[in-house]
Amino acid sequence: xxxxxxxxxxxxxxxxxxxSTLGLIAxxxxxxxxxxxxxxDKLFTIDDVTGAVKDRIQLDAGLPVSLRLSEDRxxxxxxxxxxxxxxxxxxxxHKVLTQFSLNTPTERYRFNGGVPDASGRYFxxxxxxxxxxxxRYVVSKQQFxxxxxxxxxxxxxxxxxxxxxxxxxxxxxxxxxxPDGKTxxxxxDKVLIVDTASLKVVDRIDVQxxxxxxxxxxxxxxxxxxxxxxxxxxxxSLFTASDPFVHNKIFGLGRFDLTARKFTFTPIGPITNQxxxxxxTPDGKTAYTVATTGxxxxxxxxxxxxxxxxxxxxxxxxxxxxxxxxLGMSQDGVKLYIYGASYDIEVYDAxxxxxxxxxxxxxxxxxxxxxxxx
Length: 374
Description:
Shape: globular
Mean pLDDT: 83
Radius of gyration: 21 Å
Distance between the termini: 40 Å
Number of strands: 31
Structural class: mainly beta
Largest sheet: 6 strands, antiparallel
């Protein structure tokens, strides 16, 4: 039986929390490596102290659209849109271990990332398949798919049920897998609980229907990049909610226990136009996101810093906006990065939220995400 726990705890208003501080992350910063995708077909590794590009890894499979570090931090998994490719790299040496494409002259696949199992043999994702026939193209329903990284092909598929296929998120919805590899989690308007043996949905968490009085339409607010594992079994993400009368929107933090299948949600304060991205420090005590208000000429962007032990907004700081960008963090949690859809990375100090410098990549970075390595 799936247990749903939703806790609504009144917190101080966001404006009253501005100016309060968190303890600085202990220990001196040390050099690490960042990996991100660039157009048209490369992965770059970057020294996170100097900003120098160390490796330019050529991808035969094309343009990278997702990056994911395995839970044991030994492998990096990338997917591409050009040829529906899958690439596995060694996290220490950055060498390509496996690289292949799923597309054939008569078959095309569309998917965006996925999740490996603990063995590293299988990669779980959701796909749309297009078959080229003599007189027409046939597009499949949205499907769960298991990719065998040794055989380099899809070995199992299962159509999503109509009620699940209709949920927002499509094949871009983020995924997680339980530590024992028996349960897959697909985060759409509802959280789908999937048995990996049968690829069937065995349960659903309807996060939109809050049990507490006065809230409705609870939904993910952080997008794909907003899902973070704070421990091997717990996931944290940003959510939005509103009341059923004047539809006043708020945001809050939600937690999923992947083993116990419990969901908790705590509202924090009024929402802005957009809240996106969530980066959690290695100790799981602090998180950062970006809040945006206004559009075009009057657009305004701020870092928001959360104390995850008290679920309070601890600090915020305005920074120079871009039309499109992604939030990243160094592997030690000391630096924040604004990057993507541009040729540079802007570096900010996580403790003070102040701008420090800009690194020139000499290449256009994709929105595939960033992997921070030691």
